[in-house]
Model the fold of this input.
Amino acid sequence: MGKSSKDKRDVYYRMAKEQGWRARSAFKLMQVDEEFNLLEGVTKAVDLCAAPGSWSQVLSKKLVENQKEGEEAKIVAVDLQAMAPLPGVIQLQGDITKQSTADQIISYFDGEMADIVVCDGAPDVTGLHDMDEYIQAQLLLAALNITTHVLRPGGSFVAKIFRGKDITLLYTQLKVFFPKVTCSKPRSSRNSSIEAFIVCQDYTPPKDYVPNMGNPLLDLAPTDAQGKSNRTIVPFIACGDLSGFDSDMTYALPDSGNDNEEYKVLAPVQMPITAPYLSAMEKKRKGFFNEQMSKK
Amino acid sequence: MDNVHRRAQPVHLTTPVTALAYHDNDILLSGQGPYLKATLISTAETLGCIHLGQDWKIHRIVIANVQRITDSIEARLFMVFGAKSLRVLRLCVDRSLGNNSPSARFQHLWNITHFKDWIVDAQWLWNKADLPGEHPTTRPSLRPPVTASPTHIAIGYAHNFVEVYKLPQDPFTNAMETSDKLRTDDDLSSLTIVYSVQSEEHCTLFCGRFHNNTLEDLWFASGTVFCHALLWKVYHEGGIEAPVVKSLIGHEGILFGIRWSDDGKAVCTVSDDRSIRIWDITHSTNITHTTHFGHTARVWDCQIVGPYLISISEDASCRVWRNPLLANAAETDDASDCLACWEGHEGKSAWGVAVSDHGVVATGGGDGGIHLWRLDSIVAGTTDAEQNTQDVDLPAILTYFPDATDNDKEFVRDFVITSQEQSVYSTNTGYILVRDDEKESWNTLFHSPILKNYSSLEASACGRVVVAGSLSGRLVIVSVTNEFEPLIAETLGGIKIQFVFVLNGADRDNFRIVVFRANCTVGVFNLTISTGTSVATCTHIGDLKLPNNNKAIHAAYFSPRYNLILLGSRDSTVLVYNLSQLNGDNDTSTPLDSIVDLKRCHGSETVSSILMVTEEGEGLDGKDRISVYSTGRDGSWTKYRFLGLPGGETIGSTSSADEDVDMGDSDDDGDDRSEIRGKSALQRRQESSLDERESGTTIVLQKIFRSKITRGWLEQVFIMDGELLLLGFFNKKLFVYNESKHFEIFSMHSGAANRRRWRFLTNNARLEHTRLMYHSGYKLRSFARQLTAGSELFKSAKLQNNFHGREVRQMRFLPDAQPLVGGAPAPIIFASGGEDCRLRMFQYIPYKTKNSCTALRPLCNLKPSVGSTLRCLEWSKTSDPHSYLLFTGGAVESMRAWQVGLSIPNSYQVEMIEDHAGNKIPEHTPLSLGCLELAQCPHASENMETRIMDLSVFKLDGHPGKHFVVAVYSDAAIRVWLFDEVVNSFVLAIDASHHAKCILQVSHLSLEGGGVLMFTAATDGKIAIWDITGALDRFLEVYNTDEIRITRAMSSSSSSVGRESKRARRDHVQTLGKPAAEVSVHMSGVNGLYVQDMGVDGIVAVSGGDDNALSVTRIKAVWDAKLRTVKVSSAKVVHRNAYAHGSAIQAVVMINKAEIVTTSQDQMLTVWELKPLEDGGADVQMIETQFIHVPDPSTMDTTVMGEDQRSLVAIAGIGVQFFDIKPVQE
Done:
């Protein structure tokens, strides 16, 4: 398989590199925004699980456009991992389950609250689907928990979800805080992928709700104490231009105009700063795995 | 309960094995989705199988202590948990049944389904006073003196907190009390919480483990997502948050598994960073650790078991490592800390592991299989093997050669192993010595100057006869057991004998000796022992003529039954000689010509061994099936079929389907393999007839299969206990690979593979008694492995057959399968393919046992090409009721045609068994299935990455043997291919493009009269309806001229070599205009499409989308016989349920004209009733919905089962689940 095979397989991957986005997921936020106009007039945004930073890039571009005289747009990007710097984005390396992280985010907004909180985080997927879904739900609930600290009433929350067996329980929990919850699938997200984006609008916390980081939100049981189902199905909206690119489709590589000229493969915009398997990769590079890997 | 009127009954589930625990050395408990199974490992018998959960799967089994009820009856409490649910059960084992298997029963004590949070571990707790012994608080579950029952359970949660519950009164008065009834869910309130504590570190855990079994001494180890392991004491007097006592810092990724050593002095962690770390925590301040790399993917679990670490990983292997805590620092060698890598599972991940006291390791795979391994087998591959290896030194020369002088340089020239206790040596001074390897005593068998300075030794398989070839061309034949006087035979010409082969003859006293002389000639001799007179006679039968290239012979086999000699040469040729051709002609000086000369059997490498197997009556039409196997130094083994031998299959047979062969995993021999497998049946026939003409006989040897096993050499093939074993060398290691079961049984360092440098002898497929002798430098080393102790531990290493190791993308039942024997039910067979790139076929056997866990029989397991996901497959029928065509499609635009034949043993008798309801029914016949690749479809797209997304196959009336395969592609192409049985090749008939999106679904409808409608659906949410009748007519008109057909045949046979170069010819391709109709039915991808002809109600297309919606489209279409067109007058969406499922619908089928079944990523199966309304609309009502235990369901299919026309529905994704949908009896 050649170096260009991912380019051939994935049109958005190729376009992201061409347009300078750090990841193809930039298109997902842009397409969600096209449908819901979430970023209209927004000047303060929080990007949770931001690395490698493509959503912060999109926020930065849009918020600068929205910027009015004398009012500065503010984006706080939070991630457990270090992230390469981005102009105009305040970076915070921290754990979104921690009160201190919430306090720090709030401190950047000078007593004001954020207009939107976005979260494109996904945990390491193990392949044990029930556990993967659980961990993803915990990540979303942690993001929701921190959102209740930093989002202004009426604001929006967008997060990646896995539409697995218990997603309807999460919908129910989100409905507690947002009257309008929609499941949205941008066309840049593959049809074959279990991922989708939950778009929660018009933040309306329950009366007397006191945000509390010390007490994590836990996912709901399938039925409540009265035996009533805790499952809710929310509307589904596919977003992005139907006549636009299809992330599942195989496109021919753009013609270089010269048959002898090889298609030029662009390097990724930003290489990952860290990965858990770096030591293993280093060993592999030195030939450690060769003997055993080639045996059978 | 809401499912009183349930219609869809789950009847079988194959799913990853996620939890394993031994009750004792013979009974293994396994968690497979919601099922808990007890299996006797000695016999692989299922003792019990119970369904535990509504919608959770078992993640771990935690055992308590054994309670002895009587001498032969014992009981054990255990917990199983998964997600937020936990169940307490009691296993009662009764061994009072004499020699019969024990019986096992389960009692359900408590079932709690609503714990606060995800459970990562649970632990039994005792009162400290109840635990006598030296280390009272550790592992009372395994200590016999503990008779008291545990009083509490501790539960560790994913948010790093622990709760301790008091167990209520045991609901049973007696461990033997029967209760098959599943207790309904208990409320959490039936347990009393007595203690609760949060770790001071608030975080999410992937894993956690308790240590010790009293609340006072209880520790918890938390494996965090920020790469640290935290150890903390659960019982903490000051406040609700417990401090972290020790932090283990070093991993570079999330921790997936954590365990304590039994004594609590060490902790073992595994991580996303692919490493295993062992932490010595005996010192509170100075915590040291060792790091072990080796797994090629993430590691899920590792435990410390005596001198070993045993780990399982995402790479699907189980590895055994040297326990670093016990290792002597001086001996530690970084490179060899891994002692074994057991690869028995397919695809991704081994999830469960358990070790018995007898050292039997059970692993559970993501492939749903359970594999057994023996720790004592490791001895073979490690430095521990030293204790079973010894140097063999000749005795002092004067003890057997009193006249030896200082000029007599003595050393071993050659050696053979004649039995487990005996070996024979030829020495430089011309002696043949026999050694009693037990007593280490030596005896002289023979001495002669003719063997001085050179000898080539070989023994008969029985070990009674040893033959030495000399420099002067003479054979010395000696009896090891003194059955006859030593014999010296001339072999013509006085040429040095390079190799000798002693082959079994017609009876135990008859042998064929084949000699290969240094001048590249081959002689054949007959050796007969006359036991009455203690005389052996050796006569020259004749010489064999080698082809001109004159390359050395490395392999020989004699078949007394057919009087054939098979030779394998260094230039990769297999030669067959018919010794009967010598009979009428006593002139032995003219060499005999070969009847088969098959070149390039192993690329261009040496054929290192060869053998022949006759299976009586197993071939087509009840004839004998005669197979030949060879190994080669290209690292592969080849299988051949002999046709035209007396009583055997003949060339005229139309089907050359093969039984249960595996294409192997190899990924670096693409070119070689395609050369063989890429040939169409037509070419094979050509190859055969060529041999026929040359030889002037009708005997043909066909290559039917080849698989590369190693990058090194394969040196020997043997069949033992019905299993195919391969011996090879790689990296100076000798290994024995069980090809039938796909695992390495044995491997050890033995130096290089040169011929005459090693000898190997074993007694059975498990290699229980194995000897290996090899030269190591100037030393001769002898290794013996005796697995007698505990060889009765288990019979089969495969305790449970596996399924696909990764997500299945499509499965299809064999349509209209016919019974192969009178009185038997029609077999239920399906083919499946997916992300593991394998094509597999299984037989579903309902009521095989009372336990629904074991009803899938694997029939075939093929890997058509590396790295190419199988996305779609469809069956097509041929004129032979037991022969089918299968078409598969997938990544890199690959599409193949396969011929599948069904057969059963002739002797098979239908047995009557009882079904679930106790009715007598005929048992499903266990079938054999042969699958042969017929053709690969040429490429037609510009972009190699194009995927074939779906297929639909139909035949046209009046065009027998022609199969039309509609394929839709990820680059929006729609192509109809003709697969013609006559030439076995694909011809492009129609090429079109539509949707401008990745097309996901294709279906067709053949109308009465000959019209064909095609339906395509894409990620744009649209369904396009096409009349392709005209285009097919136009294509057939040109195709049916003989001229084109001949051209096709020629072109297909000449382009077999590089498959990449093969591109579709477009000269007669038809195009399609616009679709007859197009409707927008979903917001995004159409993942399921089912088209049904409803008769007077017209046509319906039922579809399910990524948008969670179920849609029904009604289509009115009329066939115009005169114009041969289908007029589509209307197509509109008449029903749309946007909330049909909680997530993307993945598959839709109709089990009859009124019932729709859908499944979705939300893991639900829903049955809907469809009523077409007279106004052109449709009414769709949900009948029932239930949870399915198949994550990522991707495909669904249905078939009719039994006389009462019940529908069997199967849903596959990660695993497969079957549902029996019964007609309504209101």
